[in-house]
Model the fold of this input.
Amino acid sequence: MTAYSSEQLMEMEHTYGAHNYHPLEVVISKAEGIWVEDPEGKRYIDMLSAYSAVNQGHRHPVIIKALKDQADILTLTSRAFFNDKWPVFAKKLCDLTGKEMVLPMNTGAEAVETAIKTMRKWGYMVKGVEKEKAEIIVFTENFHGRTSTIISFSTDPVARDNYGPYMPGFAIVPYNDLEAVKRAVNKNTVGILVEPIQGEAGVVVPNDGFMKGLSEIAKNNNVLLAADEIQTGFARTGKMFCFMHEGIDPDIIIMGKALGGGVFPVSAIAANKNILGVFQPGTHGSTFGGNPLACAVAMAAIDVLVNEKLSERSHELGNYFKKQLEDMKSDKIELVRGKGLLIGVVLKKSAGKARIYTTKLKEKGLLCKETHDWIIRFAPPLVITKEDIDFAMKQIREVLA
Ligand SMILES: *Cc1c(COP(=O)(O)O)cnc(C)c1O
Done:
């Protein structure tokens, strides 16, 4: 096989791939743990973790072993037949979430779609909402994926423009505003779809009590609360799921990203029987959802999170990292926010675009991605050590202090 240089690969991608991303100018051809390497052999710390899909670190040996072992036995059956992995994974995910049932899909957006369909169907079949009238409350600056339904209720013109006609049935209210949610609830409201922290919006952390307030509004009005934990889940924010910081129990938990352990797309929603019981055979599905390879990988991915206590680690090291960022003297930083190892550094407008700094950090061996033009997200794999963070801080100080 021809070994291409980074330069050649970026050129090829630009020529042959659609330009729906604007990657940082680095090509990754190898990875292990928190480290990634380019074809020329330069090493970098991954500070993005594929948008939190690699919480367990790149190519975690336990997960890779599960992948290889399962690949030697059975990979895909479709759910026209039972297989010997999906039931075991379903039980494991129920135990982890405290819910009675799960429905497996592949990508995050599919899990969100599944949650939307669940809330609507529950609305018609259980709550008794008039046909075609169901409404779901969503929030400004939300990010729930890229399907035509999901972008219909995005408030980001970049994600939304030129994709109409748009799907009706969503009421958009300001994030972090419980009064606005109360005003938006009506007899047709079937659900509230929310990110416990808005990752893509720039690690926007709502006030303490926001999720709890939503949970109460949902209960008082016979409305389902669906927590999109695709980015915030699986130990990223210092708890297994971010809603746990508020001690609540959302009706629907939407999971993806790190459920696949950084190797495979695996997503699912979890809920109790009175909710997920609305599905009958044939009413929803996915050819690859619940495939044995995905299930084996996801079970290993969960084992790693639990056995290596990555929630605790994320909590402790996140506080350590965040404090150092906060204490750093910098005329470029407006504020630092986040929970666990999901941290956003908001730059002052006078500092110029975040891309300037992510490019400089790349030169120093840290791969970070800007969100919007003025926020840098730090979300390394949760297997990072204190020493790695010290090394990272040294580079960050040189660029931002
Ligand atoms: C990434 C993400 C999604 C979409 O997941 P895909 O696997 O990219 O479809 C949905 N919601 C949130 C909060 C996400 O971060």
The chain has a mean pLDDT of 97. The first helix runs from residue 6 to 16. The longest strand covers residues 333-339.
